[in-house]
Structures are given as structure tokens and as C-alpha cells.
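Query form — protein CorA-like Mg2+ transporter protein

QUESTION: What is the three-dimensional structure of this chain?
INPUT:
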Amino acid sequence: MMTSILHSLEGLAQRSKNVEYLPLGFGGEYLVNTPQDLELLLEIQKDPSLSIKFDFKPLPAKEDFTLKKSYTFKITVKIPQTKSNFFSTPDYLIDYILGEKEVIDWSKKIVLPFSEVFYNDVCKYKSYFIYLNRLVVLYKKYAYWDSVRIVLFTDKPFIIPLRKEKISFDKLEKCFADIDISKFKDSIEYLEDFLDNETIEKHKKEKQSIFIIESSKVLGSQVNTRFYSLVKEIGEIEDSVDKSFKIYLENFSYKKLELELKKDLDYFIKSINDSIGALQSQALGLPVAVALTQFSKVGSESTSSSLLYTPYLALIAFSVFVAFNVYQQDLQVQYSKASIDRFFKKESVSSIVNTDTSLNSMRKLINKRIRIINIYMLSILILAILVIVYSLYELGLLAWTPS
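ANSWER: The C-alpha cells for CorA-like Mg2+ transporter protein are given below.
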């Protein structure tokens, strides 16, 4: 839908002169030079997403037009939520970007500044607009923001104004002209990855703190031009953040790592112990339950057959429950193992573990314990299956003939 509407608008703009852009469309003078020019107008009039009006008649018919003559028109885009899906000028687009808190899906927008037909000089900045949106979203995600400002809380609030003064394309264009798009893109993608993809909670908090502090340092004392400085200096912010985090990792001593590792391992061991504890009571219950069914055979001649079946049916149900619980606990063990493996593979951890004998041994012991636990759970599962088979045999539902 968006593509076809944009195609119609481009066709109209290409054949028009004195084009003036409006918030929801544009106007100008259209020269009906050929029958094909006229057909385009008639097609646009049929499109329910577009409304076109002329100075001489609101809804002219084919016979009302004369070839080789110009007509003043005004076209309005009427797609749902037009104000957030259609943008006729760079300034309207920038105003929308500043107000968004999510990454924009541009495939669902009609953006005239992205088209060479409308803005031959502006469309080359398409990628800058796309990454400008991601830059604004990044700061809104990790700092306080409202409709007029982003606030970085350091020793004192550090304000990046969004609407105190109108952010204009003319000033942004000067920033874009001095920025290599590949570097602009790389810096924003680095910071997104830096902040979003961290599994160690302590590192995550430190990264956010470094991001806020280094941003305020780089932007310095500028006030009215601070947003433009943010766009222009994002590469320097990336470098400062990277350097500061490396210093943090260097100061992240072995003792701190050991404490962090112990915290993760304590959680892991507790999780495993809880799983094994639950299984142990059930595993011990299986032979006890089998023994009780044997006792129930005493006096079986005076007991109805339906009552004799009841212990075995209960035994089957209990065994199925144990087997299901073994499966559930196995998933928990797998999850815990994956969490520990991910921790050990982190660059800040693996670089120390690989060179430290005690930590390396600790990891091997963990892997050994996981293998033993897997064997233990498999044994319980086999026992539960054997009890089910035994019960089915006693109920006469399973025949067994010795060879």
C-alpha cells in the first residue's frame, strides 16, 4: 500500500511545478501535457488513500480538463494515522524522530525526503535519519526523558534539549556533512551492542553508568547546541565508553571475579541440590511403593479384583509422575549448565579462567558433577519405567514369556 501511494505521489510531483509541501501532502501546478498525464490524475482521484482538489472544480471529470494546460492542485494523504505514517518535509520527519521511543519500521512509512523525486539533495541522508532514530531511542532507553529533553544523571542533571529550541534540518545537515555515515552507523551499533548484550548484572550496571558519564564528559558545557554536538560527537563518545570499560575490566580483580563466580555457582549448586532433593524422595518412594503392593497380595483371595488393581494403578500413576519430574529437573539442569557455560565464555572471565589453575579445576569439577547428576536422573527414569512395566505385567496388560 505505502509503495503504491508513494509511486502515485512521485508521478504527480514529477509532472508538477511550484511544488509547496504541506503537513499532510503538497500542492503545485500540474501540466496536463499528454493523455497519460490526464490518466494519472484520474487514477489518483480513484485512490481512497489520496484526496486531490483543483482550483476550478472539487471533483473534475475527464472532459473538464484541456490538454496543454496547467491546473493548480492540492493533494492530501488520507492513510490511517497519517501524521505518524506520512512525512512531507525533513523538519516534520525530524520532529517525529525526536518524539519516538522505539526504533521506527520505515517500510510502513511514506517519507518524501527519502525520495529523489521530492528531495534530490536530502534523500542522500536517508541512512543518517534512520540511525538518528536509533541514537535517540538509545538515550531514551538508558536515561530519563520527557517530551522536551533527555536527562543524564551524573553529579548533577545533564540536560540534552530536544524541543527547547526547534531542531532543524538545516543545522543537522551541517552535522551530517561532517560525519562519515559508516562511522556514524558503527558507533551507534557498538553502543547498542555494548549496552544491550550483557549477561553479568554487575557489568551491565557499570556499562550504563560509563555510558551516561562519558556522554556528559564529551558533550561538555554546550547547552543550546548540545543535541547537535551529540550527533556530531557520537564517535568520540563510543571511544570514551570503550576505553573506560577496558579500564574497569583491568580493575576488575581476580578477587572480585572469584566472588562474582562464587555467587553464580552458589545459585547453580542450590538449584541442582533442590532438583536432586526432590528426586531423591521420589526415587526412594518407588521401591517402597512396589513393596507395599506385594503386601496387598496377602489375603487377595478374599479381596475383590477391582481392589487388587488399585495399588498397581496408583503405582503406575506415581511412576509416570516421577518420570515427568525427572524430565522437568533435567531441563532445569540444562538451563543452569547453559548459564554457567555462558558465564565462563565471557571475554572478561575466560581470559582469567584459562590462566588460573584453581578456577579451571573448579569448572572441570562442575562439568563432572553435571555428568554424575545426568547419570543419576537417568537411573531414576529407568527405575520408574521398570516399575510401570512391572505394574502392567501384574495387571495382566503385558505378557512376558521367558526364553
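ADDITIONAL NOTE: The radius of gyration is 35 Å.
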